[in-house]
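Hey, sorry for the delay on this. The queue was backed up all week. Below are the sequences that define the complex (chains, strands and the ligand SMILES where applicable).
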Amino acid sequence: MTRVKVIGAGSIGNHLSHASRRLGWEVDICDLDRQALERTRSEIYPGRYGAWDAGIGLYHTDEVPRGGYDYIFIGTPPDSHMALALEALQEEPRAILVEKPLCTPSLEGAAEFHALARERGVAAFCGYDHAISQGIAAAVSPPSLTALGEAITLDVEFREHWAGIFKAHPWLDGPESTYLGYWRRGGGSAGEHSHAINLWQRLALALGKGRVTAVSATMEYVRDGAAEFDRMCLLNLTTETGFTGRVVQDVVTRPSRKWARIQGTDGFVEWQYAYRPGEEAMFVGDSNGVVDEKIFTKSRADDFVEELRHLDAAVANGAALQSPIAVERALETMLVIAAAHRSAQSGATVRIDYGAGYVEQALS
Ligand SMILES: NC(=O)c1ccc[n+]([C@@H]2O[C@H](COP(=O)([O-])OP(=O)(O)OC[C@H]3O[C@@H](n4cnc5c(N)ncnc54)[C@H](O)[C@@H]3O)[C@@H](O)[C@H]2O)c1
């Protein structure tokens, strides 16, 4: 029986716990806040999935068992991820999944976690679930790539007003009361909607265009009480092969738009999340318009089942390093986030030197 520890009884902790149960796994959830544990049992889990599942163990962090878990999932705020991930490594699970964004823009702890996970032989993943969705797999499948011809440019947008996020967290008062309102803690649009940066990188790699090496960013930072965050994050990206494109992330757009488009010499490929409620869409077209569309019907809860099934198979097949949600891909996303803040604040293009490792010194 696969045993899972989920750290953090919040929004994502509930999704990952529910997905694990759907896969027939044993689940213990822990949190340092007893109110969060109670809210999971009486509100979040039954509210989302119909009923509380009494087979799930609920523990305060001080009381949760240590050791004996196959997988440890970390679903806490970004500024706690690396310390918890380093602790989780001591338990020697088969794999650790850390939620996105992997860490804060300072990259503190990231290189250490990566090196130690490798040394201990623990597979490490990050929760950029869209990267392994059926829609994205279809977007980079051989028929789509053939229809594109040579890719010329790539746009990815994840634009969603805070309201969507706070709807999933009715117990929070607003950005100031959580990491979301603090860019240095991994919040703001660059961190919270970093699915877009990650997808841009995922698609560029699949197109054979390489990793991002230059970031030119415009961000709009706002202050709201004690909070300080970027509400708009506009990025121009260039890869090591000279391929260029654009990412837009914001916390102001409503209704939300989560979208990607690859323009090629012969045609285009477009992807849209929540194209219609409960539907992910992928379109292939030429200069006259859409010639093929694929619709994938699913709920947000289903996305996490798909993600964990992928993780489980990658671990079983020894293929963690090749996974689009491998921690290495998320570390590359963190370098772009860190470069974006530096670029927006200095007004200069920031370059990434992957040879320097997953540290701030990789940026110049
Ligand atoms: N993959 C996705 O699409 C997705 C969706 C939602 C959230 N997330 C990510 O998941 C993370 C958490 O977001 P959330 O919305 O679930 O937050 P949340 O505020 O709903 O829940 C976080 C929980 O972690 C607990 N916590 C904080 N520090 C802890 C610690 N040291 N030990 C144990 N518990 C601790 C808090 O008490 C809280 O209950 C963020 O990084 C977020 O970006 C990812």
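Residues 7-13, 31-33, 36, 61, 75-78, 80, 84, 99-100, 127, 129, 169, 178, 192 surround nicotinamide-adenine-dinucleotide (CB under 6 Å).

I'll add it to the shared folder too.

S.
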